[in-house]
Amino acid sequence: MSNLDSQAALSVCGGRGFVAAEPVRELLSPRTVKLGGSTEVRRLLPNLGRRMVGAWCFVDHYGPDDIADEPGMQVPPHPHMGLQTVSWLHDGEVLHRDSLGSLQTVRPRELGLMTSGRAISHAEESPKSHAKFLHGAQLWVALPDAHRNTEPHFQHHADLPTVTAPGLTATVILGALDGTVSPGTTYTPLVGADLSLSAGAEARLPLDPDFEYAVLAMSGEAHVDGVPVLPGSMLYLGCGRSELPLRATSDAGLMLLGGEPFEEELVMWWNFVARSNEEIVQAREEWMKGTRFGTVHGHDGAALPAPQLPPGPLKPRGRVR
């Protein structure tokens, strides 16, 4: 998925200097962004107060939207580099196609994982015949320097492992949770899990104290470490936790995001994750010239033009503004 802002803002992130080394409860509010077609998203990362959670560097939550009489998601071909995209749905379908020739419909609780590596382009859209509701999250994972120029590839995993407790089912999307490992390829120690809680459930989720964590509220009413989280908000939790108390007052859906704090400093602009201003400038030029990122065949429409670069040079800095 793309950042479709016509005036894309610079995000500077990475480094351990601003990681909360102890447990915290920092509630992050989203900003609303129009994504394309009838889809409006709530952007949680990058945020004014928090740039990353582990290697997770971009989080959009959208829906549930009634798209029965709408085209739904319509994201034209656009480029990526230096990151992985994670598509996760609670309702609806998203048709993914990319410059490698991949063509895959991603459905609820299935993992669509695209590793951009050095360069890829893709498009995402609701199929012409689609479900009434569209509800999901789109996330990016920054690739470490040793792997950011890897060959691009796409993975689809329809059957993911789960961790269960009374009133709780945790689907392991990426990484590992309580010894259960996702089949999705990762390049840094991290975890992404979808948490389904039944009304009245109380659970304590085991965590790695060396990771930093956040919880994205997808639906329902739940308390995370005693803090009520509403759908479309995210609670940053810091490090130093060995478990996480959860309580649901209704059926609720959450996403747990965590990972080892990302040590490298990054420059993130539009749909690119890089290490310098020069890399961003070159990537934008190559996308506009039609080189490096390939062509997405089969999409009905033009590719997305890159926005104008900010007037000053882009510099990598810390994890918070």
Automatic annotation (TrEMBL):
Residues 299-321 are annotated as: Disordered. The keyword S-adenosyl-L-methionine does not apply. Residues 193-292 form the Pirin C-terminal domain. Residues 41-141 form the Pirin N-terminal domain. Keywords: Iron, Metal-binding. Fe cation binds at H78, H80, H122, E124. It comes from the Bacteria. GO terms for molecular function: metal ion binding. Binds 1 Fe cation per subunit. Its cofactor is Fe cation. PANTHER family: PIRIN, PIRIN-RELATED. Belongs to the pirin family. This is Pirin family protein. It comes from Streptomyces beijiangensis. The lineage of its organism: Bacteria, Bacillati, Actinomycetota, Actinomycetes, Kitasatosporales.
